[in-house]
């Protein structure tokens, strides 16, 4: 168990591509940090740099109280769970889990005890003699977890471990992994492109975009106060509505000539902005002060429904509770002033 | 289950006929002839033949000369197979790690495959020649008097080296593609689990390469036993008597140089049985070959 400290770490490929731009962060002991972002954002590269599978171009990486930049992956006291499980196909489940310990010179009795403990924890007792090819996807994923657990490492690294599982199993494994990590108290870095996974599992989320860390925060911070339009549109399903607007500097936002909305806390900014509104923070209303919304399409989600349409001429989505009431094409929306997120028109940064 | 079938009974036979004809003319007929003539003692000049039963075979198994050739064939096969496999594996492992210029490197290693065995034999003669051979000069520099075609083991050395050289590219291609089909993430998992590169190779990489290695083992044994004829022929052409040869070459020498058709036929029948055994062994094991994924 250990904390991780990253100072000005970066990755540049020989052809000049900057995969990970210089970044700094610390991960506390026992914390689960999720790196999330679209494909190609550098999240896997960053994780592989921590694992030692990818060279660190510049900067310093510290796991526990050791600087590990120049250590081999096997010497960094880490365990990694891969997207494709990466089990050794010619070894039984038992041997897969024991392999890492054997190479560290652990005694046979200790290996046996640790493997049995892990297999009991993961419900793998009946499968210890099987080959990976005889297991289902979920079981393989458990073996991969077991292989990481038995090593009792300072740091767990997860590289999109659930991407190959079907939706139902993914939900179940998500909870299992989270529980296990809490119980063992091992620091973990978890890479995913799935924002639901990030929201549900993380103590803290790092949102990455184009090799840069856009925002670091708890799931609720990321959701409530996204630092940029990128984070706003990436985190949350359905994504936040983003509309071009103008702010007059004294308390109201104009979407176009006639539609204007009141802002809770005035901002020190004037002119063009990007206005963000979460679909679920908007309510259907009837009053005269409400904003008109032209309904075009309804998506039924069961508990709620998504109303797609136009607000002041721009695409807009509303997440409304499903009360089976028939809806007219012309609706009125109640948009609370604290539901408005304002972003810089040019940089996309939060105002 | 529905099976696609031919409406006409004779059509499939007609379609198979060209292949069956070729097999009959080039395999069954000569094979039958060989078996038949192995029971006869033939006049070297074609003036009739005499039925002798199993005498050709009993002569063969009693022959010290034949036993010596068989022993050499065994040694030759073992050395050629082991050396060419080991060298090719080493080259493939190294080539697999090359990232830049990998294509050029592979092409350089593969072109040897295009050299026909007799040409390779001829190149061997040039390299190991008494008067102009550079290998001979090299040996002389070390104070060893190398004599190709005169000294039994000197000739054997040249035979083995040339045979190995020709076979390395095939093995290399197979090993390399075998190595490249091992998933990258499995290797990475091993890097995290095992600090020793040597250990990783023997415990993870090599077992995953085993199906390829086994296939190549069979191919190489067959090659060393039979396909080295051209090389041996070029190297020992003028004076086979004092030189090593393999069983296949002895069939040729006894039959077409010694004009002992009966004895030579008996030898080919023995070889035929050997090939049959090897083939059965190969199929049995290949069928049981473990498919990991």
UniProtKB/TrEMBL annotation, chain A:
InterPro entries: AAA+_ATPase, ABC_transporter-like_ATP-bd, ABC_transporter-like_CS, ABC_transpr_MalK-like, ABC_transpr_MalK/UgpC-like, Mo/tungstate-bd_C_term_dom, NA-bd_OB-fold, OB_MalK-like
Signal peptide range in chain numbering: none
Domain ABC transporter: 4-235
UniProt entry keywords in alphabetical sequence: ATP-binding, Cell inner membrane, Cell membrane, Membrane, Nucleotide-binding, Sugar transport, Translocase, Transport
Molecular function in Gene Ontology: ATP binding
Similarity section: Belongs to the ABC transporter superfamily.
Name by which UniProt lists this protein: Sn-glycerol-3-phosphate import ATP-binding protein UgpC
Protein's organism: Paramylibacter ulvae
UniProt lineage: Bacteria, Pseudomonadati, Pseudomonadota, Alphaproteobacteria, Rhodobacterales
From TrEMBL, chain B:
Record keyword ATP-binding present: no
UniProt KW keywords: Cell inner membrane, Cell membrane, Membrane, Transmembrane, Transmembrane helix, Transport
SUPFAM superfamilies membership: MetI-like
Segments crossing the lipid bilayer: 7-29, 69-93, 105-128, 156-179, 200-226, 266-286
InterPro entries assigned: MetI-like, MetI-like_sf, UgpAE/MalFG_permease
Pfam families in alphabetical order: BPD_transp_1 (PF00528)
Domain ABC transmembrane type-1 span(s) in chain numbering: 74-282
Main location, first listed in the record: membrane
Location(s), subcellular: Cell inner membrane; Cell membrane
Membrane topology recorded in Swiss-Prot or TrEMBL: Multi-pass membrane protein
Function: Part of the ABC transporter complex UgpBAEC involved in sn-glycerol-3-phosphate (G3P) import. Probably responsible for the translocation of the substrate across the membrane.
Recorded family membership: Belongs to the binding-protein-dependent transport system permease family.
Quaternary organization: The complex is composed of two ATP-binding proteins (UgpC), two transmembrane proteins (UgpA and UgpE) and a solute-binding protein (UgpB).
PANTHER family reported for this sequence: BLL4140 PROTEIN (PTHR43227), SN-GLYCEROL-3-PHOSPHATE TRANSPORT SYSTEM PERMEASE PROTEIN UGPA (PTHR43227:SF9)
Name listed for the protein in its UniProt record: sn-glycerol-3-phosphate transport system permease protein UgpA
Species whose genome carries this gene: Paramylibacter ulvae
Lineage, highest ranks first: Bacteria, Pseudomonadati, Pseudomonadota, Alphaproteobacteria, Rhodobacterales
């Amino acid at each position: 168990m250990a904390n991780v400290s990253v100072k000005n770490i970066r990755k540049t490929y020989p052809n000049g591509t900057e995969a990970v731009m210089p970044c700094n962060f610390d991960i506390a002991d026992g914390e689960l940090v999720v790196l999330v972002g679209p494909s190609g954002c550098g999240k896997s590269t960053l994780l592989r740099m921590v694992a030692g599978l990818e060279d660190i171009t510049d900067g310093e990486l510290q796991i526990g109280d050791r600087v590990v930049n120049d250590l081999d992956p096997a010497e960094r006291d880490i365990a990694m769970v891969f997207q494709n499980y990466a089990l050794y196909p010619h070894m039984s489940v038992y041997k897969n889990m024991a392999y890492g310990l054997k190479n560290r010179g652990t005694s046979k009795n200790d290996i046996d005890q640790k493997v049995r403990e892990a297999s009991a924890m993961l419900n793998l007792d009946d499968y210890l003699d099987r080959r990976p090819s005889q297991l289902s996807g979920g079981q393989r994923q458990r073996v991969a977890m077991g292989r990481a657990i038995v090593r009792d490492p300072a740091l767990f690294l997860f590289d999109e471990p659930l991407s190959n599982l079907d939706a139902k199993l993914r939900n179940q494994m998500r909870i299992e992994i989270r529980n296990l990590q809490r119980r063992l108290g091992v620091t973990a870095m978890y890479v995913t492109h799935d924002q639901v996974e990030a929201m549900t599992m993380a103590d803290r989320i790092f949102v990455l975009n184009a090799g840069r860390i856009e925002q670091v925060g708890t799931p609720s911070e990321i959701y409530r106060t996204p630092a940029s339009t990128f984070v706003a549109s990436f985190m949350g399903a359905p994504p936040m509505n983003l509309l071009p607007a103008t702010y007059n500097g004294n308390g109201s936002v104009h979407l176009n000539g006639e539609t204007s909305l009141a802002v809770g806390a005035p901002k020190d900014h004037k002119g063009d902005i990007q206005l963000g509104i979460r679909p679920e923070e908007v309510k259907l209303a009837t009053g005269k002060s409400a904003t008109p919304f032209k309904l075009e399409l309804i998506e039924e989600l069961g508990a709620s429904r998504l109303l797609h349409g136009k607000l002041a001429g721009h695409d807009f989505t509303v997440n409304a509770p499903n009360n089976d009431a028939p809806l007219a094409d012309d609706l009125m929306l109640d948009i609370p002033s604290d539901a408005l997120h304002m972003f810089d028109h040019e940089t996309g940064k939060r105002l | 289950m529905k099976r696609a079938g031919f409406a006409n009974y004779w059509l499939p036979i007609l379609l198979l006929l060209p292949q069956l004809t070729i097999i009959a003319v080039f395999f069954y007929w000569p094979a039958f002839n060989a078996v038949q003539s192995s029971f006869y003692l033939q006049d070297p000049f074609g003036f009739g033949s005499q039925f002798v039963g199993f005498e050709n075979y009993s002569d063969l198994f009693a022959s010290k000369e034949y036993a010596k050739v068989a022993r050499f064939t065994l040694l030759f096969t073992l050395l050629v197979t082991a050396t060419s496999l080991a060298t090719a594996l080493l080259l493939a492992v190294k080539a697999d790690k090359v990232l830049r210029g990998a294509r050029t490197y592979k092409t350089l290693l593969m072109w040897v495959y295009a050299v026909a065995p007799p040409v390779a034999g001829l190149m061997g003669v040039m390299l190991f020649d008494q008067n102009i051979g550079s290998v001979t000069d090299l040996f002389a520099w070390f104070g060893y008097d190398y004599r190709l075609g005169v000294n039994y083991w000197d000739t054997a050395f040249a035979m083995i080296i040339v045979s190995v050289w020709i076979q390395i590219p095939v093995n290399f291609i197979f090993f390399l593609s075998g190595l490249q089909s091992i998933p990258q993430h499995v290797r990475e998992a091993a890097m995290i689990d095992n600090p020793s590169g040597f250990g990783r190779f023997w415990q993870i990489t090599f077992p995953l390469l085993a199906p390829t290695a086994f296939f190549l083992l069979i191919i190489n044994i067959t090659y060393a036993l039979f396909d080295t004829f051209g090389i041996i022929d070029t190297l020992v052409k003028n004076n086979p008597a004092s030189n090593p040869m393999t069983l296949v070459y002895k069939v040729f020498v006894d039959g077409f140089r010694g004009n002992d058709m009966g004895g030579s036929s008996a030898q080919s029948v023995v070889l035929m049985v050997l090939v049959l055994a090897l083939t059965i062994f190969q199929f049995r094991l290949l069928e049981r070959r473990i498919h990991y994924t």
